[in-house]
Specification:
By secondary structure, this protein is α+β, with helices and mostly antiparallel strands. Helix content is 30%, strand content 18%. Strands 22-23-25-29-30-31-32-33 form an eight-stranded parallel β-barrel, surrounded by five helices. It has a six-stranded antiparallel β-sheet with strand order 1-2-3-17-16-18, with helices on one face. A hairpin with a 2-residue loop joins strand 9 (147-149) and strand 10 (152-155). Helix 4 (350-362) runs parallel beside helix 6 (397-407), helix 18 packs antiparallel against helix 19 (746-761) and helix 20 packs antiparallel against helix 21 (803-811). The protein is globular, with a radius of gyration of 28 Å. The chain starts with 28 loop residues before the first helix and ends with a helix.
Length: 875
């Protein structure tokens, strides 16, 4: 991270001189107050503290099962929401649904049982109600639509007319989830399933999914989509590895219920790709057993808030822990931040960069956050900001850096500073042409409003207003260009995504022309005149408006990136103690960032100094870091959160081991250090890091050889042990028993392959042409700098990246890669594929080499395709 002041820095700002009021600014006090109260009601999104469940897994903050009780503000009033996020990839997690009853009466599928009673009887961690149903005599019920339990069809799927079948969620034998319209009889390989309501014999219109491929289709989902009701819904992530339960109470003063579009909006913000609406109203039921064995449950809307007996249920089971301790499922984030070697204006030294990466990789670093947009200049070549001199001298520096990272088994993330876009005594051409973008010049000159010199981390930083449409357009275009051009990037990071350092006075400091005009147009008052007194409603409203602008700018960056490919990991950086007055004035709103699902990973800075090296002083430093972890947990329940740690030697800090043990003591082991050069220059730091990673860090499930990677070498080890005959008990080979059922068998190999795929290709589950193009760019006939560390695309561990690896990728593809001339893998062959092939060539003829012959064969194939297509449309 760039140097940031953390404690003990004061800032002074005098009250601003009021600007002349417009007519709109001369509102009566009552009307102005009414406007503000209304605006605050819209802007506020209240989130209560999380209620964590199944904390045994060390996984960022993402345990196998995370339960949250939330208060969500809607235009109709507040709602009490219960959300469960389940990591289906964790071998300890399984799904259970209501089974068939013995000798059922005619027309009956099940017996009515309340969700609390069913959860207790089945020892489920979490349970909800599922299908709609018809009540029969004798306490029996007819389940409407598909219901499958442990491979047995309890109720068949329905299909009426020529429309879609009912929307349903199915869990395959691999335990992954899929939401779709499941036709009657299409249950081969389905282990469990429940369904919502779509078409029926009496519907005037057909029903849809609640969320369809990330889009809100709640208005056309069933039942009663546009009125407020208690609701139960269920959804899945794009790759089917994460399951979401959603229940909202309704028809109560304390919780008004939601429309289906509102439910869909909420789920989309949490990362749901597809979802269905289940039975709601008085049937909506949620019960969870927490870690302390207490029970959390919703408040049903039936008389007396009693739970209604329902026809079927869906529960989450968690089957204990692994012998010898818990192992993490997700690939660990063990990173450092690095500015490219060579000062700005000098030629970048790629050999030096390679050497630094090799040193870092040999000591446990797996992720490099290489600064790609800093001080308003680009490391890569997108052409939207000025380029650094070394970029021009060495070609595309970022592209070359990515391949060096691949060689050293490191995943490269483009580290981008979005909040300030200039540095130096003279503004760049971009900011000279757009002076209204600048919030404050950190240049030590007197502020024109206050007369007080403006200070910051570094002199001559120029921060921009992230709410300004021009700034957003430029940043969105940049992130889009990065995602398009650099297919091999692991991720892109938005850092410094907030406003300048805070003033010590209570008055807000930012009254740039755009903000004043936009705020006045929306709220009817000039903020410089009305919002500069701390504690007033206008002051609070002004800060909330600015924070919302910063949050929405991050959301737009995320949308722009994911529009290119959801495979890119988007991360953001903020202070962990975001709620302090000092950092709130930077317009950071970490809970809002998490609620909007703006990022895939959230880095929270836990930078602290210590006053000495006594036991008391060290313990105080540890407590301070752990307090930041706790703050981040509260702000980001269930999110992937990574500790940003400082190893700078300018002031006294805890050593590397002490800081890592501090975050591990709070259940966090994902980290990034600022910064790489200091780490490399201090061998003792590298030794402590390497020792901690190899001996103290929680092992990754499936990393059987303990080398810090989950790759083909682990699969080879497994196959050498398990040759077809189950091994019971596992004995000394307990780590090979991946699903902890006390037997090493073929099921464990399936689990290992799933873990391998997720670790190698990313947690979104997509293996597509983007991955294939990245592999093609990384082709090599030799080992990297350190033979024991594989190129990240060496999928068969033979020391090379060639067509054998490409075939492994094709075997795991989640999209059709058979159309060789569909280079961009969008399902059609057109001129876009020509652009894609010439931008980043593919191995069209599959000879293991990308050369001119591929271009020749691509052109010949494409022309043949065009000729065939044109004949087909001749009249």
């Amino acid at each position: 991270m760039p140097q940031r002041s953390r404690r003990g820095v004061s800032f002074v700002q005098s009250p601003a001189t009021p600007a002349p009021l417009s007519v709109a600014g001369r509102l009566s006090g009552a009307l102005r107050l009414a406007r503000v109260i209304f605006a605050l009601a819209i802007l506020t999104w209240l989130v209560s503290a999380p209620l964590p469940l199944a904390r045994a897994q060390v996984n960022g903050f993402a345990q196998p099962v995370v339960v949250e009780q939330l208060t969500v503000s809607t235009t109709g009033g507040n709602c009490r929401v219960f959300l469960t996020t389940v990591d289906l990839l964790d071998p300890r997690v399984s799904i259970k649904t209501t089974g068939a009853i013995a000798n059922p009466p005619a027309g009956a599928d099940s017996t009515l049982i309340t969700v609390p009673a069913w959860r207790t009887a089945n020892n489920a961690r979490v349970a909800i109600n599922a299908n709609f149903f018809s009540t029969l005599t004798g306490g029996n019920a007819d389940i409407l639509g598909l219901s499958v339990s442990n491979g047995t069809v309890v109720s068949p799927a329905r299909l009426f007319g020529t429309g879609n079948p009912d929307p349903a969620i199915v869990f395959g034998d691999d335990r992954l989830a899929k939401v779709d319209y499941i036709a009657p009889g299409a249950t081969a390989g389905v282990h469990n399933a429940v369904a919502g309501i779509g078409p029926s014999a009496t519907d005037a219109v057909l029903g849809t999914l609640l969320v369809t491929d990330g889009q809100n289709t709640g208005a056309t989902a069933r039942v009663d989509p546009l009125n407020r009701n208690p609701r139960t819904a269920i959804g899945v992530s794009r790759d089917g590895t994460r399951l979401f339960h959603f229940v909202v109470d309704g028809r109560q003063a304390s919780s008004v219920g939601m429309t289906l579009p509102e439910v869909a909006d909420f789920l989309i913000k949490r990362g749901v790709w597809r979802a269905i609406n289940l039975d709601g109203g008085g049937s909506s039921s949620f019960v969870a057993r927490l870690d302390n064995n207490s029970t959390l449950q919703n408040i049903p809307s039936d008389t007396g808030n009693a739970f209604r007996g329902v026809a079927n249920h869906l529960g989450i089971m968690v089957n204990g822990t692994f012998a010898g301790g818990t192992e993490r499922v997700r690939r660990p984030i063990r990173g450092v931040w690095l500015r490219p070697p060579g000062a700005p204006g000098q030629t970048g030294d790629l050999a030096l960069l390679d050497s630094k990466m090799a040193t870092l990789a040999a000591n446990g670093i797996r992720d490099l956050f290489l600064e790609a947009l800093f001080w308003g200049k680009e490391t890569g070549q997108t052409g939207l900001f000025p380029g650094h001199a070394f970029t021009n001298n060495t070609g595309d520096y970022l592209a070359q850096a990515i391949q060096l990272a691949n060689k050293n088994g490191i995943r490269l993330h483009a580290w981008c500073e979005t909040g300030y876009l200039d540095f130096g005594t003279n503004p760049s051409a971009l900011l000279t042409a757009n002076p209204g973008w600048v919030v404050k010049n950190i240049d030590q000159t007197p502020d024109p409003q206050t007369g007080v010199p403006v200070t910051g981390d570094i002199d001559f930083q120029r921060f921009v207003n992230l709410g300004n449409p021009g700034v957003r357009t430029q940043l969105n275009s940049y992130f889009t260009a990065m995602a398009n051009k650099y297919v091999s990037l692991e991720g892109i990071q938005a850092d410094y995504h907030f406003f300048p350092l805070a003033p010590s006075s209570a008055a807000p400091w930012s009254y740039d022309d755009w903000a004043r005009g936009a705020y006045q147009a929306q709220f009817g008052v000039d903020p410089q005149s009305f919002a500069n007194t701390a504690g007033t409603t206008f002051h609070t409203n002004w800060l909330a408006w600015n924070r919302n602008n910063v949050t929405q700018a991050l959301v737009q960056i995320g949308d722009a990136t994911r529009a290119v490919s959801p495979s890119i990991s988007l991360s953001s950086v903020a202070f962990a103690d975001w709620s302090s007055a000092f950092h709130r004035s930077k317009m950071i709103d970490l809970p809002s960032w998490g609620t909007t699902n703006a990022s895939d990973m959230y880095f929270f800075m836990a930078y602290f100094t210590i006053s000495g090296t006594s036991v008391t002083q060290i313990n105080a430093g540890i407590a301070a870091i752990q307090a930041d972890v706790d703050r981040a947990k509260t702000a980001l329940p269930g999110k992937r959160a990574i500790a940003g740690l400082a190893n700078l030697t300018d002031i006294l800090r805890l050593n590397v081991t002490q800081q890592l043990n501090a975050i591990k003591g709070r259940g966090v082991e994902d980290f990034a250090w600022f910064e790489a050069n200091t780490m490399i220059a201090n061998p003792s730091m590298l030794t402590m890091l390497n020792t901690w990673v190899s001996s103290t860090a929680t092992k990754q499930l499936g990393d059987l050889n303990n080398d810090g990677y989950l790759d083909q070498r682990d699969i080879t080890l497994f196959d050498a042990l398990f040759t077809g005959t189950p091994i019971t008990p596992p004995g000394v080979n307990t780590r090979y028993d991946l699903n902890a059922d006390n037997t090493i068998n073929a099921v464990d190999r399936v689990e290992l392959l799933r873990l391998f795929k997720r670790s190698v290709f990313g947690e979104d589950g997509a293996v597509d042409s983007r991955d294939l193009r990245a592999l093609n760019l990384a082709r090599t006939n030799g080992n990297g700098t350190i033979p024991a560390i594989l190129n990240r695309w060496d999928l068969n561990a033979d020391g090379k990246v060639n067509d054998l690896d490409a075939q492994i990728l094709r075997d795991n593809a989640t999209t059709d890669l058979s159309l060789l001339t569909d280079i961009n893998n969008d399902g059609v062959r057109n001129i876009d594929d020509v652009y894609a092939q010439f931008a980043i060539p593919a191995d069209v003829n599959r000879d293991g080499v990308i050369d001119s012959q591929d271009q020749i064969e691509f052109i010949a194939s494409f022309r043949q395709f065009e000729a065939t297509a044109s004949r087909g449309v001749q009249r």
